[in-house]
């Protein structure tokens, strides 16, 4: 869960803390610049705190080696050098962040195939099928569904799909099919 209206540098909202507390699974994506964000480190601290009692943390190392996270080397070393300057008054906070990153890096980490399986599983869960008339499929809709699934399948690309045609040919039905 993320709040798109949350401005950079503000504290984590109570709603986000509540969502973290109520979650049973946290997927944390660690990238090279992850440690440069005190906001992300605060959030990770809360995630680990909550998941110890009632959930699972699944770290995903995106373009970063788990040993860099564990040892805070590479881009993580640079980020922590900045944090130590910025938080001179609160050295304990920086120590907590270091400990949290070490703990996350020591968890079993995901390989690319596992990440792909996670994405496929989530995609199946959130991409509901749309059926009309008590599961009776419309004639020809299966092929259209397959073609639309190919167009909107998870990918690194940004895609726009337009549905165009004369009235009465099922544009709304197709849109509902892929959006619901």
UniProtKB/TrEMBL annotation:
<feature type="domain" description="TIR">
    <location>
        <begin position="1"/>
        <end position="130"/>
    </location>
</feature>
<dbReference type="GO" id="GO:0006952">
    <property type="term" value="P:defense response"/>
</dbReference>
<protein>
    <recommendedName>
        <fullName>TIR domain-containing protein</fullName>
    </recommendedName>
</protein>
<dbReference type="InterPro" id="IPR000157">
    <property type="entry name" value="TIR_dom"/>
</dbReference>
<dbReference type="Pfam" id="PF01582">
    <property type="entry name" value="TIR"/>
</dbReference>
<dbReference type="InterPro" id="IPR027417">
    <property type="entry name" value="P-loop_NTPase"/>
</dbReference>
<dbReference type="GO" id="GO:0007165">
    <property type="term" value="P:signal transduction"/>
</dbReference>
<dbReference type="InterPro" id="IPR044974">
    <property type="entry name" value="Disease_R_plants"/>
</dbReference>
<dbReference type="InterPro" id="IPR035897">
    <property type="entry name" value="Toll_tir_struct_dom_sf"/>
</dbReference>
């Amino acid at each position: 869960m993320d709040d798109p209206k949350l401005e950079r540098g503000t504290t984590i909202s109570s709603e986000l803390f509540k969502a973290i507390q109520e979650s049973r699974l946290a997927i944390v994506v660690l990238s090279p610049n992850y440690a440069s964000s005190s906001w992300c480190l605060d959030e990770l601290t809360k995630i680990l705190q909550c998941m110890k009692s009632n959930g699972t943390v699944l770290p995903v190392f995106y373009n970063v080696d788990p040993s860099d996270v564990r040892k805070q080397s590479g881009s993580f070393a640079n980020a922590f050098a900045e944090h130590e300057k910025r938080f001179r008054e609160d050295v304990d906070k920086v120590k907590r962040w270091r400990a949290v990153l070490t703990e996350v890096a020591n968890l079993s980490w995901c390989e690319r195939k596992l990440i792909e399986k996670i994405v496929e599983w989530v995609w199946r869960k959130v991409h509901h099928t749309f059926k009309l008339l008590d599961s009776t499929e419309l004639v020809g809709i299966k092929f259209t569904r397959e073609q639309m699934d190919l167009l909107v399948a998870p990918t690194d690309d940004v895609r726009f799909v337009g549905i165009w045609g004369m009235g009465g040919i099922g544009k709304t039905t197709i849109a509902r099919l892929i959006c619901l």
